[in-house]
Design goal:
elongated; 3-stranded antiparallel β-sheet; mainly beta
Length: 72
């Protein structure tokens, strides 16, 4: 069931989202178990998507409404 939900959305394949890779401390490269040091946007044949590595988008800042706008 979960696999079907993930397949519906098209996520770009990138080493920074792979379960075999870890971001380096400077976040400019990925330390891959299979290939060594690679670019974050790279991809190899051993790529396996890990949804927990995906960073959520930042929430939009909404301005507070002025109470005078709601008066009749």
């Amino acid at each position: 069931m979960k696999r079907k939900l993930l397949e519906k959305k098209k996520y770009p394949a990138a080493c920074e989202y792979c379960k075999n890779g870890r971001l380096s401390p400077d976040e400019k490269s990925v330390l891959c178990i299979k290939k060594g040091i690679v670019e974050p946007d790279g991809r190899c044949r051993k790529y396996s998507y890990d949804p927990l590595k995906r960073r959520p988008k930042k929430p939009l800042l909404v301005e507070k409404a002025d109470p005078s706008e709601f008066e009749l």
